[in-house]
Amino acid sequence: WPVADIKISRTHDLGLVKARDVAFKWAEHAEKTLEMACSYAEGETEDEVQFSRTGVKGVLIVTGQRFDLHAKLGFIASAFKGKIEVEIEKNLDSLLASKKSGKAAAKKKA
Description:
alpha+beta
């Protein structure tokens, strides 16, 4: 079934609670704009977001220091690998940047 893989990793210093926030927002975006079905499982040291739709299946592993995404694309979806990868990266990077800028703003207020 899988024809192409997408692997994306990002490091951060948010800690698990704030990273969980980013992951929830990412899952909401994936459901609304990419028509993914997402399920979220919280763990003690890491969370897991399973996501899928026709031709795409994957997981986002969330820890206090990293986001690791691995998606498998079927035949038709693999033709759009570049676009899919760019969209996922853009969204994840945007969410991380907004969380980091919020953290910086909170530090300035203190």
